[in-house]
Structures are given as C-alpha cells and as structure tokens.
Specification:
Blueprint lengths: L1 H13 L2 H14 L6 H7 L14 E5 L2 E4 L17 E2 L14 E5 L7 E4 H7 L2 E5 L2 E2 L22 E2 L2 E6 H8 L7 E6 L19 H4 L5 E6 L2 E2 L9 E3 L12 E7 L14 E3 L14 E3 L6 E6 L4 E3 L5 E8 L5 E7 L7 E2 L1 E2 L9 E7 L5 E11 L23 E7 L1
Parallel strand pairs: 4-14, 18-25
Antiparallel strand pairs: 1-2, 2-3, 4-5, 6-9, 7-8, 9-11, 10-14, 11-12, 11-13, 15-16, 17-19, 19-23, 20-21, 20-24, 22-23, 24-25
The chain binds the ligand Nc1nc2c(c(=O)[nH]1)N[C@H]1C(S)=C(S)[C@@H](COP(=O)(O)O)O[C@H]1N2 and molybdenum atom.
The ligand Nc1nc2c(c(=O)[nH]1)N[C@H]1C(S)=C(S)[C@@H](COP(=O)(O)O)O[C@H]1N2 binds next to β3.
Length: 410
C-alpha cells in the first residue's frame, strides 16, 4: 500500500504532474457544471499498472492518458488488454455502473428513438465476436517534418483485440433507419478537460453504409473480459479499419443523422487530410480538408525487438502483423538491403474481415555486421507501403511508411 503510494508520488514528480495539476485546478474554479469527479481525478495519481496496462508501454501524455505500445510488445496475435494503446481526448467517467448504463438511439433519421439497457442489448440481439484492428489516425505522426502538433505517436497506436457485442446494424434497424440517413454520430460519457459537463469531448461517426456492415460492433467485451475501464467500459463502438477515433468509448448515444455528422472533432482539421496533396508545412483551409475513411495498408515487425544480436550463421526469424483498412493484405515482403531487393514472407489470411494478418519469414543474413530490416505490405488493390514518410498533412495523419528495425550479426 505505502509502496504503491510511494511509486505514484515519484511518478508524479518525474512527469511534472504536480504543477500541471494546479493549473487545471485554477481553471476549474471558472468552469460551469463541473463533474464532481474532476477534482478527484486531478489529485489522484494513476500509473500504467493501476490502469491495467503493462508498465513497459510508452506514455506520451498522462492528462489525458495517451499511451502507445512498443512494436515488440504487439507480438501477440490477439492484442491483450494490458498491451492495447490508450488515446483519450478527455476524462474517462469515474463511476461506471453497467446495470444502470443506457444506450440511446436517436437523430433526425431514426424511425423511433429508443433507450436500451446493457441487459436489453444482450438479450434482444444476437452476439458476435470479431477480431478488429483499431489504429489511431495519428499513428506515425512523430515522423512528419515539419512536425505536426498532437500526440507524437511512433508506431504503437494500433491493436487488434477480439471484441464481443451486438451488431450496430441490428440495433440501428431495431430503432429504424429512415431512407434519408447519411451518417451516424456517437456520444460517450467522458468529461471535457475543462470540467464543463455541457461540453462534448469528441463525437465522431461513420457513413451509414459503414455503420451497417456486419463487423461494426457495439461491444461490451474484449478478449472475453469486460473492456478495460480506460478503453471504454462498459460499452464502446468498434469500427475496424477506420481511424480508431470512430470507435466511440463509454458509449451512451448514437444519432442517426440526415447529414454528415457535425460533432466535435468531425470538422475543421480533425481527422481530416488535405483533399488534394499539399507541400510540407502548407496551410490548408478548412474547406479543403476531407474526412479520413479507411486506413492505409501498413505493417509492423513485432519480432525480434529492434537491436537484436545474432550469432554468425544464425537464422533471423521475423514476424509481425499487416492490415489495410477495409481491404485485405495480399502480400508481405521484407528487405535487408535498404529496399534494393525484397524477400517474400509467409502471410496468413485474416481470422475475419478487418482483423490484422500475421506474417513471418526466416532469413539468413549474408555476413557479420549491421542490418536494417524493412517490412512492406501490399493490399488486395495493389496499394503498397511507401519506404519514406508519405503525404505531409497539417495534423500528421496516415503515416504508413515501412517499419524498420536494426539487427546485428557478430
Ligand atoms: N468517448 C471517447 N471515445 C473515443 C475517444 C475519446 O477520447 N473519447 N478517443 C478516440 C480515439 S482518437 C481513438 S484513437 C480511440 C482509442 O481507443 P483506445 O483508447 O481504446 O485504444 O478511441 C476513440 N474513442
Ligand atoms: Mo485517435
């Protein structure tokens, strides 16, 4: 108990939380409808372990929590709860009671608004389990030059757990989807960083066609357990293959909209790229920004860890995952000579649509010395990962450049 307190304290010190906390506390005095839990949140020290995460994950930010997973810790075929990244825009709800939690379906294009308890969701609709890849639209942002503001994700804002819940389409159809439906927008129960209960943290969505796909889930379970509190317990949307910002956490309401949803972080520069390519550093008008939909083809080397040492003659066993938004990955190659030549890898089919795929290769490095291993995936439409950072854009989204690791023989 006291050791736990001690480690929390020193953690607070290292990340300079104490002073940041006091700044926030001042803001709270002016905020209107303050969530009574906000003050508590500011005073309490949380660490990765108390959030149920591995202490080996990388903290980018802690108020709110933004945490990524080093590539070699994503080696599992099904991402375990303690290795799934965290991307929070606000403060998670502090007291969640699944027995009183409700989900409302409303909006201009709903036949009849309905509110369902989690028990009703579980009893009225068929349950489905899918492994679905979620990747933050800003994964890879750290490599853009000039730098883009926001969390400096490297490669680890991605994961592919197994999710159980009901199909979003079954619930939408139960309420009734009018012919003029265009989009859905989600609302969650997290609290705005200002503490103002009237402010919405983030409310995004997807076109109705994506919402009605079989794999779009309203999930209560991840890997057979409750979804971790920090990842959206007791209910979240899971929209595989699209920016994970569409997978609303702490889900309490879904609006069926007769226009493109216009909640916070749908508009402006958020989760959008320039419709036409722009030069690095360009200013782009809001009207020239387009919403990101399916994510681009990408892959990770999850074994070995970068920096591995091999004995001369020892085979280099490589493995990882590849994914391609709404598409399938059709081929996987690695290079040990900076892209001069490529070696074809074994590639498994996905366990279901929108799940990442596993690849492996066993290669022999020609002689002793230093090597880089580059990994490149190709999707079923022939789209391929670029070897350098592609398409600079104002907010630093969609960097799907090849992942590289270093290996030494000798
Ligand atoms: N209610 C709510 N849902 C949210 C967010 C949030 O801040 N609040 N962040 C979104 C973003 S930007 C991402 S990348 C994913 C991250 O999911 P995870 O934290 O479970 O990895 O959740 C999305 N859903
Ligand atoms: Mo995100």
């Amino acid at each position: 108990m006291s050791r736990q307190k001690q480690s929390r304290k020193s953690f607070l010190k290292t990340v300079g939380l104490v002073s940041f906390g006091s700044v926030l506390a001042k803001d709270v005095v002016y905020a209107g409808n303050i969530n009574p839990e906000l003050a508590k949140w500011m005073q309490e020290g949380e660490d990765l372990t108390s959030l149920g995460k591995s202490s080996k994950l990388t903290i980018l930010n802690n108020r709110p929590w933004n945490v990524e997973t080093p590539a070699h810790l994503l080696d599992d075929k099904i991402t375990p709860a303690d290795k799934l990244f965290i991307r929070n825009n606000g403060i998670p709800p502090s007291s969640v009671d699944p027995s009183t939690w409700t989900l409302t379906i409303d909006g201009e294009s709903v036949e009849k608004s309905v509110t369902l308890s989690i028990d009703e969701l579980k009893s009225k609709f068929e349950h489905h389990t899918y492994q679905l890849t979620i990747e933050c639209g800003g994964n890879g942002r750290a490599e853009f030059d000039p730098p883009a503001k926001g969390n400096q994700w490297t490669t680890g804002a991605v994961g592919c757990p197994s999710w159980t819940g009901v199909r979003l389409k079954d619930v939408l159809n139960y309420a009734g989807v009018k012919k003029d439906a265009v989009y859905i927008g989600y609302y969650g129960k997290d609290v705005h960083l200002s503490g103002d209960a009237n402010k919405v943290v983030i409310s995004r969505g997807v076109p109705i066609s994506k919402a009605l796909e079989d794999e779009s889930l309203i999930a209560w379970s991840m890997n057979g357990q409750d979804i971790p509190a920090i990842n959206g317990h007791p209910l979240r949307l899971v929209i595989g293959g699209w920016p994970a910002s569409t997978s609303g956490k702490w889900l309490s309401r879904i609006s069926i909209r007769n226009k493109i949803h216009d909640g916070p972080k749908m508009e402006g520069h958020s989760y959008r790229i320039a419709c036409d390519p722009v030069e690095p550093g360009a200013h782009v008008e809001e009207k020239d920004m387009c919403i990101i939909e399916s994510m681009p083809v990408k892959s990770l080397i999850t074994y070995p860890k970068s920096g591995a040492m091999l004995k001369p003659g020892q085979k280099l066993e490589l493995r990882g995952h590849a994914w391609a938004g709404d598409l399938k990955v059709s081929e996987m190659h690695v290079s040990i000579d900076f892209g001069e030549s490529w070696i074809k890898c074994n590639l498994e089919p996905p366990v279901n649509r929108l799940a990442w795929q596993h690849w492996s290769a066993g290669i022999t490095l020609p002689k002793k010395g230093y090597y880089e291993v580059w990994a490149r995936a190709r999707d079923e439409n022939g789209g391929q990962q670029p070897m350098i950072v592609p398409g600079w854009n104002p907010k630093g989204y969609l960097n799907n450049a090849t992942h590289r690791i270093a290996v030494k023989v000798g």
